[in-house]
Description:
The protein contains 4 helices and 7 strands. It is an alpha/beta fold. It has one domain: Nucleotidyltransferase, domain 5, CATH 3.30.420. The radius of gyration is 14 Å and the shape is globular. It is found in: Cytoplasm.
Amino acid sequence: xxxxxxxxxxxxxxxxxxxxxxxxxxxxxxxxxxxxxxxxxxxxxxxxxxxxxxxxxxxxxxxxxxxxxxxxxxxxxxxxxxxxxxxxxxxxxxxxxxxxxxxxxxxxxxxxxxxxxxxxxxxxxxxxxxxxxxxxxxxx
Length: 140
């Protein structure tokens, strides 16, 4: 199996969580979240992350309602994914992210209580869960 590096993004209007993972261990690690202004990141920061990790795939969390229907943020996350693809030409995958924020908060709380629950950390751990659930859906 060829090693594949994956960057995951948890899209938000104020902060975009970032994680990097690979398909050998099927695990990911959180990166520093990227600040966003109404959903628009500093593209230079995104470019720096992409140049550092040289990913084969970008996985963007798709925020859906619990019944699987789209919500206003769904369209914005898809637009973000399209912009990533347009700017960097890297393959894109959308991954259902229902419950990742809740799971991220639970995981961080287990690691260190409420003091670990900064917004940036929650967003990037959510991105970790998005990448890991992508691996589960595509490699198991």
